[in-house]
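User: Study the chain.
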Amino acid sequence: MNYLIDQLNAGYLKVVGLYQQLSILAQSMATSLERGKWEGVHEQLREKQVIMDTIDAKEAELSQVRERLKQKLGLEEFSLSALPNQPSVSELNATIAQLLDVIGELQKWEKNNEGMLQKLVEDVQGQIEDFSLSKRAAKAYSPRSERHGEARFVDEKK
């Protein structure tokens, strides 16, 4: 049983490292967004996806270990509190606490980045609307065909 608990702890330590990488990447992405470096953001989003895929694979492995531990202990549902009080369980609890701290930090950065992206999207939409209005105004004041004669303004909505 200690082997399974140690395996869980080692796996979660790797997951902590992966989430730390995501947090560093989120901070870097915030810098890129602030500077308007879209190419950097695009590359960072690709890196983020690779890390997230790795986390998903690691979580699938950990799920199997939790399932074996659950069966070994005869539990209906896996719970840290159901594990016997041993040093390896204390280490696992500390690792889980560390993971939660890193995820909390990551969530702050992700929320910040989401807000910046939302503002940038709104700004771009405003620019597109302004461009569209300018284009329609220019089109309205330009001659279109013989059918309209010399008139420069055409109300296209009628």
Summary: The helical segments are 2-35, 38-73, 87-140. The chain has one domain: 2-144.
